[in-house]
Amino acid sequence: MLPIPFKRTICKILFTHFLVESIVFVPSMALSLFPLELSSGLVIDSGFSDTRILPIFEGAVILKCAQFINIGEKHVFERILDVLRTYPSISKNADRVITKYMELRLSLKEVIQNVEELPEEVDLSELVHLEEDEHFDESTLQDIKVKFCYVKGFETIPNYENINVDEYTFDTTENIEYKLPSNRILHINENVRKYPYDIMFGWLDEEESLCVKILECLRKCPIDTRKILANNIVITGGNTMVPGFKQRIIAELKHYIQLPDYQDLIGLQGFFNIKPSPFPENILSWVGGSIIASLDFEDACINRESYIENPYIPIPDWVDSFVQLY
C-alpha cells in the first residue's frame, strides 16, 4: 500500500545500485498465506503501531472490506506502564541482595533469609510507586511483555476454559521480581500481566474491539466467501505472540455472533478457526516472501531490462500481481 513515487524510488535503487534482476510488490499480509498453503484467508496482522484485517479469497484481495485499528504493541507498552504506576512496584536499590539473587536464582524472600548483616537502610519489603517521569526503554518493556504478559480469558462466557498461565510463565499468586538496568527490583503483579492486552479487545471505553472489527470485515465480504474466510483465520505479527491471544479471539467471536447486532452472521457459528502455523507469527510474512522469491512468475514482475529502457514503466498494482501468483 505504498505510494507510486515511493515504489519508483525503490525500483531505481534496486535496479541501478544493487543490479537486481526483477522486482514484484506484494503486501506482507498476503505473503502470510503462502507458508500455510492457503489461497483464501482472513489475515490479522498486529504490529508495533496498528492492527490490520485483510480478507483474501482465491488469491483476490477484497480491499474494500479491509479494517484497521490504531492499536498495536506500543499501546500495550503504554498500558503496562499505566498499570505499573497504579500499584506500588519498585524496591529500593540493594546491590548486595540483587547480586546474590541473580547468582542463586532464588526468590528475594529466600535470599533475604540467607544474607547476614543486611544493611539497615535496605528494606526490600518497602515498595514505592513509579514516578510519573519514570522511563523504561523499549527493550525493557518488550522483555516484560514477552516474559510475563498473557491475555486473560473472556469470563462472560459460561464454561470458558482459561489457559493455564503456569504452563507458559510463573505462578500467578505472588509478585514476580524483575531486575531493572538501574539495579532496582520491579515487582510484576497479576494486574500487570493480564490487563495490558485488554486494550486490544475494547475493554477501555475509547477503544474499539479487535473482534468487532473482524465481524465488521466479514459482514462486508460477499456472503458466499464468509464461511471460508472465517474457517481460515491467519494470525501474524509480533504483537500476537502472547499466551491466550488466539483463544480470546475465538471465544469473543463465538460470543458476539449470538448478540442481536450480529444475527446476520449467525450462520458462521461453528466455523471460526485459526489456522495453526509451523512458523512463529513474527516471521510468517518473511517466510512467505522467501517462497515468492524462489518462484518464477515473470508476468507479475518488473525486470531490470524493461526498467532501463523506460524508467517510467507502469508498476503493476499489487492486487493484480498477487492474483497472478496463484
Protein architecture, described:
The protein has 13 helices and eleven strands. Residues 93-109, 115-125 and 156-173 have low confidence and may be disordered. It has helices spanning 4-16, 28-31, 73-86, 95-104, 108-114, 138-148, 190-194, 210-220, 226-230, 245-256, 284-293, 304-309, 318-325, and strands spanning 22-23, 41-46, 51-57, 60-61, 67-69, 90-91, 127-128, 176-179, 185-188, 233-236, 302-303. The chain is globular. A hairpin with a 4-residue loop joins strand 2 (41-46) and strand 3 (51-57). The longest helix has 14 residues, at 73-86. With 326 residues, the chain is α+β, with helices and mostly antiparallel strands. Helix content is 36%, strand content 12%. Strands 2, 3, 4, 5 and 10 form a five-stranded mixed beta sheet that branches. The chain has a four-stranded antiparallel beta sheet with strand order 7-6-9-8. The relative contact order is 0.19.
Summarize the model shown:
With 326 residues, the chain is an alpha+beta fold.
For the terminal residues, how far apart are their CA atoms? 20 Å
Mean pLDDT: 79
Helix amount, in percent? Answer: 25-40%
Q: List the helices and strands in order.
A: HEHEEEEHEHHEHEEHHHEHHEHH
Q: What integer value in Å does the Rg equal?
A: 24 Å
- Low-pLDDT parts are 93-109, 115-125, 156-173
Secondary-structure-based class equals: alpha+beta
Largest sheet: 5 strands, mixed
Strand proportion: 5-15%
- The total count of helices amounts to 13
Global outline = globular
Count of DSSP E strands?
11
